Amino acid sequence: DRLWLVKDGHVAPFEDDMEGYRRLLLSERGRSAPKPAEPKPRPRRAAPAVLSPLKAEVARCESRVAKLEEMRQAIDARLANPLLYSRGDSDEIETLQKKRAEVIDGIARAETLWLAALERVEAAEGRVA
Protein backbone atom coordinates (compact mmCIF):
# COMPACT_ATOMS: atom_id res chain seq x y z
CA ASP A 1 0.00 0.00 0.00
CA ARG A 2 1.13 3.48 -0.77
CA LEU A 3 0.01 6.69 0.93
CA TRP A 4 -0.44 9.94 -0.92
CA LEU A 5 -0.49 13.38 0.63
CA VAL A 6 -2.87 15.86 -0.94
CA LYS A 7 -2.09 19.35 0.31
CA ASP A 8 -2.38 22.88 -1.04
CA GLY A 9 -3.52 21.66 -4.44
CA HIS A 10 -0.60 19.23 -4.87
CA VAL A 11 -0.30 15.45 -4.61
CA ALA A 12 2.91 13.80 -3.42
CA PRO A 13 3.84 10.37 -2.11
CA PHE A 14 3.80 10.22 1.69
CA GLU A 15 6.83 8.28 2.90
CA ASP A 16 5.74 7.76 6.51
CA ASP A 17 3.02 5.54 8.01
CA MET A 18 -0.44 6.42 9.37
CA GLU A 19 1.02 7.37 12.74
CA GLY A 20 3.35 9.82 10.99
CA TYR A 21 0.37 11.24 9.11
CA ARG A 22 -1.47 11.74 12.40
CA ARG A 23 1.56 13.54 13.89
CA LEU A 24 1.77 15.74 10.78
CA LEU A 25 -1.88 16.74 11.07
CA LEU A 26 -1.58 17.48 14.79
CA SER A 27 1.56 19.57 14.32
CA GLU A 28 -0.09 21.60 11.53
CA ARG A 29 -3.13 22.25 13.69
CA GLY A 30 -0.91 23.58 16.46
CA ARG A 31 0.95 25.93 14.12
CA SER A 32 -2.06 27.31 12.34
CA ALA A 33 -4.62 27.52 15.08
CA PRO A 34 -7.72 29.11 13.66
CA LYS A 35 -8.21 32.69 14.69
CA PRO A 36 -11.43 33.35 16.51
CA ALA A 37 -13.94 34.81 14.13
CA GLU A 38 -14.49 38.50 14.51
CA PRO A 39 -18.02 39.29 15.50
CA LYS A 40 -20.04 40.48 12.57
CA PRO A 41 -21.39 43.98 12.91
CA ARG A 42 -25.04 43.91 13.76
CA PRO A 43 -27.22 45.63 11.22
CA ARG A 44 -28.74 48.78 12.58
CA ARG A 45 -32.47 48.94 12.73
CA ALA A 46 -34.25 51.72 10.95
CA ALA A 47 -35.54 54.39 13.24
CA PRO A 48 -39.18 53.88 14.21
CA ALA A 49 -39.92 57.47 13.21
CA VAL A 50 -38.90 56.63 9.66
CA LEU A 51 -40.53 53.22 9.41
CA SER A 52 -43.78 53.79 11.30
CA PRO A 53 -45.50 55.91 8.63
CA LEU A 54 -44.28 53.61 5.88
CA LYS A 55 -45.52 50.51 7.68
CA ALA A 56 -48.85 52.23 8.36
CA GLU A 57 -49.16 52.84 4.63
CA VAL A 58 -48.47 49.15 3.97
CA ALA A 59 -51.19 48.21 6.47
CA ARG A 60 -53.67 50.58 4.79
CA CYS A 61 -52.87 49.07 1.40
CA GLU A 62 -53.29 45.53 2.76
CA SER A 63 -56.64 46.51 4.26
CA ARG A 64 -57.79 48.02 0.96
CA VAL A 65 -56.85 44.86 -0.96
CA ALA A 66 -58.70 42.73 1.60
CA LYS A 67 -61.85 44.88 1.36
CA LEU A 68 -61.80 44.73 -2.43
CA GLU A 69 -61.37 40.95 -2.31
CA GLU A 70 -64.40 40.73 -0.01
CA MET A 71 -66.39 42.84 -2.47
CA ARG A 72 -65.33 40.58 -5.33
CA GLN A 73 -66.35 37.48 -3.39
CA ALA A 74 -69.75 39.01 -2.58
CA ILE A 75 -70.34 39.87 -6.24
CA ASP A 76 -69.20 36.40 -7.30
CA ALA A 77 -71.62 34.85 -4.81
CA ARG A 78 -74.49 36.90 -6.24
CA LEU A 79 -73.49 35.99 -9.79
CA ALA A 80 -73.32 32.31 -8.82
CA ASN A 81 -76.90 32.33 -7.53
CA PRO A 82 -79.08 30.41 -10.03
CA LEU A 83 -82.15 32.46 -9.06
CA LEU A 84 -80.55 35.53 -10.60
CA TYR A 85 -80.62 33.82 -13.98
CA SER A 86 -83.97 32.10 -13.61
CA ARG A 87 -85.63 35.47 -12.97
CA GLY A 88 -84.18 36.68 -16.25
CA ASP A 89 -82.97 39.94 -14.72
CA SER A 90 -80.39 40.80 -17.36
CA ASP A 91 -79.98 44.38 -16.09
CA GLU A 92 -78.89 43.18 -12.64
CA ILE A 93 -76.56 40.58 -14.19
CA GLU A 94 -74.98 43.24 -16.39
CA THR A 95 -74.61 45.64 -13.44
CA LEU A 96 -72.97 42.94 -11.31
CA GLN A 97 -70.58 42.02 -14.12
CA LYS A 98 -69.56 45.68 -14.54
CA LYS A 99 -69.07 46.07 -10.79
CA ARG A 100 -66.97 42.91 -10.75
CA ALA A 101 -64.75 44.25 -13.54
CA GLU A 102 -64.33 47.54 -11.66
CA VAL A 103 -63.47 45.71 -8.43
CA ILE A 104 -60.91 43.51 -10.20
CA ASP A 105 -59.33 46.63 -11.71
CA GLY A 106 -59.32 48.21 -8.24
CA ILE A 107 -57.64 45.12 -6.79
CA ALA A 108 -54.88 45.34 -9.40
CA ARG A 109 -54.29 49.04 -8.63
CA ALA A 110 -54.40 48.43 -4.87
CA GLU A 111 -51.89 45.58 -5.16
CA THR A 112 -49.57 47.84 -7.18
CA LEU A 113 -49.76 50.50 -4.45
CA TRP A 114 -49.20 47.83 -1.80
CA LEU A 115 -46.06 46.54 -3.53
CA ALA A 116 -44.75 50.09 -3.92
CA ALA A 117 -45.32 50.70 -0.20
CA LEU A 118 -43.46 47.49 0.66
CA GLU A 119 -40.56 48.56 -1.55
CA ARG A 120 -40.40 51.91 0.27
CA VAL A 121 -40.23 50.10 3.61
CA GLU A 122 -37.45 47.82 2.35
CA ALA A 123 -35.55 50.80 0.93
CA ALA A 124 -35.84 52.66 4.24
CA GLU A 125 -34.61 49.61 6.13
CA GLY A 126 -31.70 49.28 3.72
CA ARG A 127 -30.71 52.94 4.02
CA VAL A 128 -30.57 52.88 7.79
CA ALA A 129 -29.06 49.41 8.12
Give a verbal description of the structure.
The chain is mostly helical. The protein folds into 2 domains: 1-33, no CATH class; 48-128. It contains 4 helices and 2 strands; from the N terminus they run ββαααα. It has a two-stranded antiparallel ribbon. Strand 1 and strand 2 form a beta hairpin.
Main attributes?
71% helix; 4 helices; mainly alpha; elongated; 129 residues
Main beta-sheet strand count, sense and barrel state:
2 strands, antiparallel
User: What's the SSE pattern?
Assistant: EEHHHH
Please tell me the total number of domains.
Answer: 2
* Count of β-strands: 2
Query: Whole-Å distance between the termini?
Result: 58 Å
Q: Which structural category fits the helices and strands?
A: mainly alpha
**Over the alpha carbons, how many angstroms does the gyration radius reach?**
34 Å
Q: What's the total helix number? A: 4
Helix content: over 70%
Strand content: 5-15%
Instruction: Kindly report the spatial arrangement of strands forming the biggest sheet.
Output: 1-2
